[in-house]
Every structure is written in structure tokens, then in C-alpha cells.
Automatic annotation (TrEMBL), chain A:
Gene3D superfamilies: NADH-ubiquinone/plastoquinone oxidoreductase chain 6, subunit NuoJ (1.20.120.1200). NCBIfam families: PRK06638.2-3. The lineage of its organism: Bacteria, Bacillati, Bacillota, Bacilli, Bacillales. This is NADH-quinone oxidoreductase subunit J. It is a multi-pass membrane protein. Its EC number is 7.1.1.-. GO terms for molecular function: NADH dehydrogenase (ubiquinone) activity; quinone binding. The keyword Mitochondrion does not apply. It catalyses: a quinone + NADH + 5 H(+)(in) = a quinol + NAD(+) + 4 H(+)(out). Belongs to the complex I subunit 6 family. One of its GO terms (cellular component) is plasma membrane. It comes from the Bacteria. NDH-1 shuttles electrons from NADH, via FMN and iron-sulfur (Fe-S) centers, to quinones in the respiratory chain. Couples the redox reaction to proton translocation (for every two electrons transferred, four hydrogen ions are translocated across the cytoplasmic membrane), and thus conserves the redox energy in a proton gradient. Keywords: Cell membrane, Membrane, NAD, Quinone, Transmembrane, Transmembrane helix.
TrEMBL record, chain B:
NDH-1 shuttles electrons from NADH, via FMN and iron-sulfur (Fe-S) centers, to quinones in the respiratory chain. The immediate electron acceptor for the enzyme in this species is believed to be ubiquinone. Couples the redox reaction to proton translocation (for every two electrons transferred, four hydrogen ions are translocated across the cytoplasmic membrane), and thus conserves the redox energy in a proton gradient. This subunit may bind ubiquinone. It holds the Pfam family NADHdh. It comes from Mesobacillus foraminis. This is NADH-quinone oxidoreductase subunit H. Its main location: membrane. It is a multi-pass membrane protein. GO terms for molecular function: NADH dehydrogenase activity; oxidoreductase activity, acting on NAD(P)H, quinone or similar compound as acceptor; quinone binding.
């Protein structure tokens, strides 16, 4: 394998993503974990750019690194903000099982990915990326797209119902 | 020039060239920030019937900000004992880095631009949202109730006003048929979008002022309620980073308004002999002046009014604007 600029960029982005994930698992304070997660999200957006999916990359930053992280931070801060996780010590059997699980996961992924064939890649993916996405979304995938919007609407209505439920007295006053 | 460089094969010399260009650009922006602060203080002074800075650097106080920055950099680096040390150090960086990243995507003239990104408009909005994380993390790491309140207010305000900001811009994306900033400017040759999209302009401008956390939407740093808001515990160069981020965003937002609504580098009719860079600078300065004018004129809005205004006024108006634009585009075929 030759070392090209793309390869270097991929390696550094992948490292950031993996380190962010490991930090998320190993840090003890919840806010630190979320910051680790932000780095993973940004690195994944960078990998999307390498795959010439710039629209997806920008949306990834907008939704995941921006919105979802802030919602998580709000959730953490509005509840208890200075609790630390204490390490629970598992027995020897747990560690063995964990190691077997990791091995099985690795093997499954290796077998799954090794002979994966996506077919030939269309050459002009990077040209007018947004337009191509839009055309595909509103011609081939209209029904899934509309179903998604119904799902989001249900979630929205559900959130409103949940948040109004415990304040019925105030609701009656208005 | 940048385009050729971007397409050439990567190497050490290219890295050095990019690094130098970015450094030069950083210094240009620092120069802007220095004189934007001075201009703000001067204009505010004149509007309030006083002189403003007039001691350091001649009668116009031209070196006042330089002296201030020097003082900030020489200050002792304080980190409160109860603060969350790693996050306290990381937060100003996270807040500032996106501010500098968004400026790279803005086209100043048809040649002078760092990155011609296909999704330039969305890139600006997405990356600028990252600063909210920096502010929130900094506020939390300070371990101070005023900081936390200010940070919460800033985050709530910035994510609420991001929605009308994006919605108002959709009308422009419809008319220009693109979200590439260069193509948006080129689509304005028939008339600037401030003429075709006046409603979008008003909504965008209000939302932009709120995004910048400036008066009348400066609840996040309301001095009389919160001491100084999210950066209460910060001092010295870490505080300077937050301030720098704020003013770089002001630079970026004014440039974005110029590009989206005022035709970027395009000249007025019959005045095409003046170069595009000068036109851009003129329009840009006008927008900066209006922002400073706002600050001198408006009182601060109340917290409940702030949220109601975003969700019950700006958002419906922006949605109606999209609908109207789509109808006009489809039935009248102006564009």
C-alpha cells in the first residue's frame, strides 16, 4: 500500500474517532465522556468527506456534534452534575467472557467485510453532491422519506404529551 | 490559485504554503478584530455623546486595543481550584477553532477565497454550531453558578435561533438553486437578494444578531444579572480567546450577510470600474456599522420574550417566506 495524502488523512481521522470512543468508555465524568464523543462525531464527518459525501458530513456535524451533543449536555447538567462512576470489579469469568465476545465480534466483522463488494463505484459522486442526494430522495426513495417524516411527527407529538402530562393544573388555567 | 493548489499532489511544500497562507489570514482577521473593537467603542462613544478611546495612539486612540491585548496576554493565567481543569483549558479552544474554520469558506471576491465548498452555506451553519459546545463546556467547567446560567442561556438561545436562521436562508437556496456561496453570489447579478427576499433578510438579520449574542440578545452575558455570563471565571488569554471567537464570528456573519443578501463582490450598476474587493469591503463595513448601531440603540430583551420571539414570530414568518418563494418561483417563473 502506498502512503498518499488520503491514506494519512484517513489514518489520523480514524485514530481520533477510535480515541474518542475509548475515552467515552474509560473516562469517569459524564461531561468528559460527551466531549470525547464530540471528537468521534467530528472524525466520522471527516471520513465522510474522504468518501466524497460532503453533504452527509456537514449534516453529521450539524445534527450529531451540534444538536445531539448539546441535548445530552443539557440532560446531564439538568440532572446531577457531579456524580462519578465507580469502577465495578468483575470476576475472572466475566473477563474471559468479555474477551471471547470481543474475539467473536472481530471475527464476524472480518468475515463480513473481507469479501464485501459494493459493485463499481459511480465516478461522479463528488459533483453536485447535494443535488444527486435530493434527486435520489425525491424519486427513488419517496415513500421511506415520507414515512420518516411521520415517525418524526409522532416523536414530536409524544414529546409534547410527555412534557404537558405532569402540569395539568397549569394547563387548565390557560 | 487555491484551487490549483488543492488539486496538486500533496507534499511538504504544499503543506508549508497552506500553513503560511492560513497564518497570514489569521493575522488579517486579528487585525480586523483589533480595529472592530476600536470602531465599536468609538461609534458607541459618538452615539452616546462622548469621545471613546482618545489617549493611546493619537487622538483616535488607534493603539488602544493593541495595548488592551498586550495587557491581557501579560496577565497571570488563573484556573480556579474547583474548576474542571482539562475542560477549562479545552473550552476556549473548542469555542475559537470553529470561528476560524468558517471564515475559510467565505468568498471575498471571485478569486479571493480559501475553500470553494459545494455545501458552503450549510458548512457555515454546521461548523458555527460547534462553538455552542465550547461555550457550554467552558461554563460547566468553571464550576460557578453564574457561568453555568450564562452558558445554558447561550446554548438555548443559539440553538433556538439557528432554526429561523436556516429557514430564512432556504428561500435564497430556492432562488439561487444552490447552496454554494459562489453560485449564490453569481445568481444575484439580476438583483441582490435583499430586493427579492426582504422578509428573509429581516429574519436572517435578527437571527444573526441573536446567534452572535449581541445586544438586544445578549442575555448570555447580561452583566447586571450574571456578572459576565459564561466566561465569569476566565481571565487573561483564555478570556481573550472567547472574545476573539465572538468578534471573529461577527466578521464571519457580516461577511455571510454581505454574500447572501448584498451581492458579495458585485458592484452597483454603472460602477463596475471599482474592483470587487472594494465593493465587498464597503458592504461589509456597512453591515458591521449596523450591528454596532443596534448595540447603541436597543435595550435587552427579556428571557421569556426571547424564546417566544424565536418560536412564535421568526419561525412562522420564515416558513411562510419559503412557501411564498416556492409559489413565486413555480408560477411566475421570474427566475
Amino acid at each position: 500500500m502506498t502512503i498518499s495524502g488520503e491514506f494519512l488523512a484517513f489514518i489520523s481521522l480514524a485514530l481520533v474517532a477510535v480515541i474518542g470512543g475509548v475515552l467515552l468508555l474509560n473516562l469517569t465524568k459524564v461531561v468528559h465522556m460527551v466531549v470525547g464523543l464530540v471528537f468521534t462525531f467530528i472524525a466520522i464527518a471527516g471520513i465522510y468527506i474522504l468518501l466524497s459525501a460532503e453533504f452527509l458530513a456537514v449534516v453529521q456535524i450539524l445534527i450529531y456534534s451540534g444538536a445531539i451533543t448539546i441535548i445530552m449536555l443539557f440532560g446531564i447538567m439538568l440532572t446531577r452534575h457531579n456524580d462519578e462512576e465507580s469502577d465495578s470489579k468483575g470476576g475472572g469469568w466475566k473477563k474471559v467472557l468479555l474477551f471471547l465476545g470481543v474475539l467473536a465480534f472481530g471475527a464476524a466483522f472480518y468475515i463480513g467485510i473481507y469479501n464485501l463488494d459494493f459493485g463499481t463505484e459511480p465516478a461522479a459522486l463528488h459533483e453536485k453532491n447535494t443535488e444527486q442526494l435530493g434527486v435520489a430522495l425525491y424519486s427513488d426513495f419517496v415513500i421511506p422519506f415520507e414515512l420518516m417524516s411521520v415517525l418524526l411527527l409522532v416523536a414530536l407529538v409524544g414529546a409534547i404529551v410527555l412534557s404537558r402530562n405532569d402540569g395539568e393544573k397549569e394547563g387548565d388555567k390557560e | 490559485m487555491i484551487q490549483d493548489l488543492l488539486h496538486s499532489s500533496p507534499g511538504l511544500s504544499n503543506f508549508v504554503i497552506f500553513f503560511l497562507l492560513a497564518t497570514v489570514f489569521l493575522f488579517v482577521i486579528l487585525g480586523f478584530v483589533t480595529y472592530a473593537i476600536l470602531a465599536e467603542r468609538k461609534v458607541l462613544g459618538f452615539m452616546q455623546g462622548r469621545y471613546g478611546p482618545n489617549q493611546v495612539g493619537g487622538r483616535w486612540g488607534l493603539l488602544q486595543t493593541v495595548a488592551d491585548v498586550l495587557k491581557l496576554l501579560l496577565k497571570e493565567d488563573l484556573i480556579p481550584k474547583a474548576a474542571d481543569r482539562p475542560l477549562f483549558i479545552l473550552a476556549p479552544v473548542v469555542a475559537f477553532a470553529p470561528a476560524f474554520m468558517v471564515v475559510a469558506a467565505i468568498p471575498f471576491t471571485d478569486r479571493l477565497q480559501f475553500a470553494d465548498i459545494g455545501v458552503g452555506l450549510l458548512y457555515y451553519i454546521a461548523v458555527s454550531g460547534m462553538t455552542t459546545v465550547g461555550i457550554l463546556v467552558g461554563a460547566w467547567a468553571s464550576n460557578n453558578k453564574y457561568s453555568l446560567l450564562g452558558g445554558m442561556r447561550a446554548a438555548a438561545q443559539m440553538i433556538s435561533y439557528e432554526i429561523p436562521l436556516v429557514m430564512s436562508v432556504l428561500g435564497i437556496a430556492l432562488l439561487a438553486g444552490s447552496i454554494n456561496l459562489n453560485e449564490i453570489v453569481e445568481a444575484q447579478e439580476k438583483g441582490w437578494f435583499i430586493l427579492w427576499q426582504p422578509i428573509a433578510f429581516i429574519v436572517f438579520f435578527i437571527a444573526a444578531v441573536a446567534e452572535l449574542n449581541r445586544v438586544p440578545f445578549d442575555l448570555a452575558e447580561a452583566e447586571n444579572e450574571l456578572v459576565a455570563g459564561f466566561h465569569t471565571e476566565y481571565s487573561g488569554f483564555r478570556w481573550a480567546m472567547f472574545m476573539l471567537a465572538e468578534y471573529v464570528y461577527m466578521f464571519a456573519m457580516c461577511a455571510l450577510i454581505t454574500v447572501l443578501f448584498l451581492g458579495g463582490w458585485l458592484p452597483l450598476p454603472f460602477l463596475g470600474f471599482i474592483p470587487g474587493a472594494v465593493w465587498f469591503a464597503l458592504k461589509f463595513s456597512l453591515v458591521v456599522f449596523i450591528l454596532i448601531w443596534f448595540r447603541a440603540t436597543f435595550p435587552r430583551i427579556r428571557a421569556d420574550q426571547l424564546m417566544e420571539f424565536a418560536w412564535k414570530v421568526l419561525l412562522p414568518v420564515a416558513l411562510a417566506n419559503i412557501f411564498l418563494t416556492a409559489l413565486l418561483k413555480e408560477f411566475l417563473n421570474i427566475f
